[in-house]
Amino acid sequence: MDGPRHAPNSHPTQQAEAVRLVSVRKTYGAADNPVVALNNVTVGLPAGTFTAVMGPSGSGKSTFLHCAAGLDQPTSGRVFIDGAELTGGDETALTKFRRQRVGFVFQQFNLLPTLTALQNVALPLRLAGRRVDLRHCRAVLASVGLAERADHLPAELSGGQQQRVAIARAIAAQPRVIFADEPTGALDTTAARDVLGLLRQSVRQGGQTIVMVTHDPVAASYADAVLFLADGQLVGSLTRPTADAVAQRMARLSDEVARRHQVAVGV
Ligand SMILES: Nc1ncnc2c1ncn2[C@@H]1O[C@H](COP(=O)(O)OP(=O)(O)OP(=O)(O)O)[C@@H](O)[C@H]1O
Predict the structure, then answer these.
(1) Which residue, 22, 27, 61, 262, has fewest beta-carbon neighbours within 10 Å?
(2) Residue 157, SS3?
(3) CA nearest 211: which of 91, 90, 102?
(4) CB within 8 A of 191, min separation 6: which ones?
(5) pTM assigned to the model
(6) H-only helix segments in 128-158
(7) How far apart are CA 54 and CA 127, in angstroms?
């Protein structure tokens, strides 16, 4: 397994926190028998960094991403994006907050099929009621290698190209943080590397902050740091991760979780 080399960050002065979770807890189901998806998670992610979130299945990765990005509200605890509190408001306030400060890249691209690549890139700006500079949107599409495809519909593009449009869409709105949920999960190896390279480039050159959930140690090795979750808790981190180190840590973590669960059910 190989991954990228870690060049020095070109934005070393940006050390303010872009994301902060304080004692975040998320439970699902009935109060007398809750499923605890996140258990007292406190963490701060510096601006201008790329963080991967990993953990065994059911460890709380998606819940972490959804709570951190304001797609879901924690049961208790607080979430801040760029110093502004995201928790505590109603759904309308949350939607406005997301549109202004947060971008998303999903596993299945989530492009609108009836809009061209360029129109998809401009959409978050329109939804946020911001001025749409189509020249800027075209330039962002060009920066992900799709200058020639601006007027094509998603169905006319490959999976990798569609995900590059989705990245352009996230970048064009210049959000404080981009949250990526398994962005390479539906792509082949080459397209996945292109996408991960673009995400890294937006951190290195654009000073973007990215938080990415992934199952793939190679994908995680593109990040500056990896956070590991197990049973809803943060159980460790790796800085300047290599794919091998991430894979080893994940194997250990999965063994530990399996052992704990066996003890819990008396096996
Ligand atoms: N809507 C829900 N209702 C009840 N339980 C839920 C709900 N969503 C998640 N959970 C539970 O919360 C825990 C964490 O789920 P989450 O989806 O965050 O884990 P994950 O690490 O993203 O898993 P995977 O890698 O399998 O996608 C799991 O035990 C899951 O079953």
Answers:
(1) 262
(2) coil
(3) 102
(4) 158, 159, 160, 163, 184
(5) 0.90
(6) 134-143
(7) 31
Q: For the domain 49-264, what is the CATH code?
A: 3.40.50.300
Residue type, 35: V
DSSP at 8? P
Structure-token pair, residue 144 = 């992900």
Contacts of 56 (CB under 8 A, 6+ apart): 230, 250, 253, 254, 257
As beta bridge partners, residue 123 has none
Which residue CA neighbors atom 2 of ligand 1 most closely? Answer: 28
Tens digits of per-residue pLDDT, 237-251? 999 999 999 999 999
Ligand 1, residues at Cβ distance < 6 Å: 28-29, 35, 37, 55, 57-63
CA of 256 to the centre of ligand 1 (A): 19
Whose CA is closest to 190, among 209, 163, 208?
163
Q: pLDDT, tens digit, for every residue of 125-156? A: 999 889 999 999 999 999 999 999 999 999 99
Mutational test site, ligand 1, from 61, 226, 233, max ligand atoms within 8 Å of CB? 61
Domain-wise residue ranges, the chain:
49-264
